[in-house]
Design a protein that fits this description.
Blueprint lengths: L7 H13 L2 H8 L3 H15 L4 E3 L4 E3 L1 H27 L6 E6 L4 H15 L4 E6 L2 H9 L5 E6 L6 E16 L21 E3 L4 H10 L2 H6 L1 E4 L2 H9 L5 E4 H5 L8 E5 L6 E9 L5 H14 L3
Parallel strand pairs: 3-4, 3-5, 7-8
Antiparallel strand pairs: 1-2, 5-11, 6-9, 6-10, 6-11
Helix pairs in contact: 1-2, 1-3, 1-4, 2-3
Amino acid sequence: MSTYLPTLKQLQYLVALEEQGHFGKAADACYVTQSTLSAGIRELESLLGLVLVERTRRVVRFTPLGKKMVAKAHRILREAEELADMARAAGKPLADELRMSVIPTIAPFLLPRLLPALRKKYPDLKLYLREETSAAACEALHRGQVDCVLLALPYGCGDTEHAKLFDDRLFVAFPKGEPDNPPSTIVPEMIDESRLLLLVDGHCLKDHALAACNRPELRASATMLGTSLHTLIQMVDNGLGQTLVPEIAVKNGLLNGTEVEARPLDAPHASREIALVWRTNSPRQPEFELLAETMRELVPA
């Protein structure tokens, strides 16, 4: 057996440095001084007899072995947290800290209605939220930076389990009068590929919209420049094109103050599944299932 084992604190310092790319910022993230963090990493290198980080005045660069150590450190820290999660789950459910990522096409439309009711039902729950794209949220989940993700499926999020909350239909949004007398629903063939505006890469809604339309030429011709649904709607309101938006956004005021109209998309699979997602075999699975059940009860139909 090795005479020396890295401490969790040293591994936390190493992971923080890799994430921040700067000693000062990593120290702030760990709530220690820069000298403490730097000394901790040097001690780790000294006792392992390895160089993990190349230090220069302008950049922090990890050696190939250092990168491997960081990947392993993420797993060790996540499993250490799961030890605490096991004890937490044995006590009163939803009565402690919970870190959740929420994607931008859900957060501003669902959370204002959900959080007050959730806080009232579980006053001891300390819910910490991160708003980030689907890819970033899933990476944070597997790195142990968050406990669960409020996500739109289908989306490849790795080795996870989920509980469905509700289906969210897709709508086509267009400037008022374009077309004249619009029908009650819009079929994909009515969408002008040269005027289709979509979110930039990293947002799963873009892929859901293109998959629902099932028109390969849309993927090739669509302009992908929106960084948020609100930005897209402003462009549509100014006559720059059409876009696709989720029902949850339409029903929660996305079009307020504009002359944009929206109609449901009439196509197979023209919806996304809103779900709570967590790591497979998480010891807090009963809590997540309870949280999902509570969300289903609290979210207005």
